[in-house]
Design goal:
Elements: H1 2-16, H2 20-25, H3 27-38, H4 46-52, H5 57-67, H6 72-90, H7 95-101, H8 110-120, H9 128-132
């Protein structure tokens, strides 16, 4: 079943030509993505991620956009939100604990509070608008 799901996912990505899967497969971007996943709370910057990938900042940013389909900042934010939603679903940690643990400043934690309320009240729907507002 998992293999079938991966095949479908890869087939969809191949049509779009961009996505996380292609980023991980890329030797340079894969280094940066692995670093983000290993340390999601680290205050990642374009220079620090480009350094991990052994690339210039401009080349790294351009390659991210082309291969992953988003900027490095958008990718980091999206990954953190996925982790936050997972923690909200599977733990009793409040937003006030989760937000700082993922380097999400208080000013940007309002969407996370909305997700928290929706999760706790059984009405969560995967929405890109929630993820893109952080």
């Amino acid at each position: 079943m998992l293999v079938q799901a991966l095949r479908l996912y890869v087939a969809e990505l191949a049509e779009e030509g961009a996505g996380w899967f292609f980023g991980v497969a890329d030797k340079q971007l894969g280094l940066a993505i692995n670093a983000i996943h290993a340390e999601p709370a680290y205050r990642w910057t374009l220079p620090s991620l480009a350094e991990r990938a052994w690339m210039s900042r401009s080349a790294f940013a351009q390659k991210c956009k082309e291969i992953i389909g988003s900027s490095p900042r958008e990718y980091v934010t999206h990954w953190r939100m996925l982790l936050a939603v997972d923690r909200l679903k599977n733990s009793s940690d409040p937003v006030s604990v989760i937000s700082p643990s993922l380097d999400c400043p208080k000013a940007r934690s309002a969407p996370l509070s909305n997700v928290s309320w929706e999760l706790r009240h059984g009405s969560i729907v995967a929405r890109s608008s929630i993820l893109s507002t952080v």
